[in-house]
Amino acid sequence: YALIATGLLVLFQLAFTYLSPMQTLFGTTGLDGMTWLIIVLVASTVLFLVELEKFVVRRFFM
């Protein structure tokens, strides 16, 4: 059920962001390509750092 809930959450978020009636109702605007690139880079950096920390802890402290 967690994957279904996550998928629905992503769909609703995209609807709030990109569907015209939802944009009017919630006061949102679509994101451009550069903004998406920044989001992906920041999220990837955090993921990379967490995985690096796990590797270092397993390798040197266990």
Describe the structure.
With 62 residues, the protein is mainly α. It has two domains: 1-29; 31-62. 85% of the residues lie in helices and 0% in strands. The protein contains three helices and no strands. It has helices at residues 2-18, 20-26, 33-61. The protein starts with a helix and ends with a helix. The mean pLDDT is 94.
Computed over alpha carbons, the radius of gyration is 17 Å
Measured as a percent range, the helix fraction is: over 70%
Q: Averaging pLDDT over every residue, what do you get?
A: 94
* Beta-strand residue fraction: under 5%
Provide a compact summary of the structure.
This protein is an all-alpha fold and 62 residues long.
